[in-house]
Amino acid sequence: MQRGQFTSKFGFIMAAAGAAVGLGNVWGFPTQVASNGGGAFVLIYLFLSFCLAYPALMAELIVGRYARANAVIALPMLTKKPWLKNAGKAVGIAGLLTVAVILSFYAIIAGWLFSFSLAPIVKVTGAIDTSLWLTDFSLSRNITFTVIFMLATIMIISAGVSNGIERWSKRMMPALVAILVLLICYMFTLPGAMTGLKHYLVPDFSLVFETNIIISAMGQAFFSLSLGVGCMLIYGSYLSSKENIVTVGIWVTVIDVGLAFLAGLLIIPAMYVAAHYGVEIFDAKGDLKDSDVLIFTVLPALFEQMGAMGQVVSLAFFALMSLAALTSTISLLEVPVAYVVESYQVPRKKASWIIGALITLMSLTIVFNFEWLFGLVIMITTQYSQPVLGLFFCVFAGWVWHRDQALSEIKKGDEHASSSLFWKIWPWYVRYVCPLFIIIMFVHALTN
Ligand code: TRP
Fold first, then answer.
1. pLDDT tens digits, one per residue of 330-341
2. In total, how many domains does the chain have?
3. Is 26's C-beta closer than 6 angstroms to any atom of ligand 1?
4. pLDDT tens for residues 57-111?
5. Residue to substitute in 330, 332, 335 for testing ligand 1 pocket (most ligand atoms within 8 angstroms of CB)
6. Collapsing DSSP states into helix, strand and coil, what is residue 284?
7. pTM score over 0.85
8. Closest CA to ligand 1's atom 13
9. Which domain holds residue 379?
10. Is residue 3 part of a domain?
């Protein structure tokens, strides 16, 4: 069977950046900025993305391209020792399970975004009841839109790597940037925006060494670059050997961080504009409101204030969020699908529908038990599974794998790799610095 591959460097970068850019950037990052001291958080996040998350991303991309397989097959290939092979397999499988759970909660939130983007259109047609149904929290609305979003994801994934993932990412990513820039320009013309901009861009240096802020920024960087579950490893496995993997990785990081930065540029000022219009953005204690409240109540309230223009902005904003979420859900579904296709020779289409259906069932289980299950699965997967697995990926790339093999893999797309700055730093970095940082993050999460 012919293995899927991205057809161009641009296609790969768009797809991998599309996997990275999602709710984590457009929703998670701005709200973390808002609740973690504004500019100081931005500064630390930028630092950690390049100095910690980028090296970890490279570990996944290089191993993936070397093995040309999913993590369950790839990690055992890095060693000859049977017990380490088994450990690698276990890490790969734990990653698969984590990814399935992440997708099952992600699809619910993505469904909300999509239903919110339809609301203004429905409103224009005069169907007020339906538009209220779209924006009110209800079992029927949640079920409908979770299923719709999963169906869209399954259809793209069943079409394969170049026809599905690459083709859609190439369309969606540039559209995303365009909508974002337009919205930012518009937002800047509104009263209050400049106060928000200042909060966003001027760091309070006394907060820069605050442990909590550093830990949050680190978690944000890992989630945002989709690390620790073999997702980027799969994307690396579809990258052509001709490409310079080091620069490709930099592009993906720059785009991911850049989009988070742009999203912050929109949302932080938007909050202050909302405050100017009299929307409550601070709670009784004077802290900023929670993230879900922020996006699903504060922003719609703001759009409401803006009259007819507000409906257009609302449509653009939520359509943008839905697109960002879709390029991420396809990357999430690709992980288990690639595993079943490669390890059990199941046709891609069949694998996509079966696994997609199973994950949809998981999603619906969360929808039906929303009160206690939703927050719980988010906490377990993002705060515990991801950091622990991320640690194992770095250990496999840094300690288990032979350095020479890593080097010869990088050399395929860059003859001078052995004398590059990247090669002087990375092997050592991924061995000591990345695991140590992740351990600190994990210990901190456990002790708090
Ligand atoms: N990084 C994406 C975001 O910021 C979400 C995502 C996609 C992800 N694939 C992943 C997170 C794999 C963890 C693991 O929204």
1. 999 999 999 999
2. 1
3. no
4. 999 999 999 999 999 999 999 999 999 999 999 999 999 999 999 999 999 999 9
5. 332
6. coil
7. yes
8. 226
9. 9-447
10. no
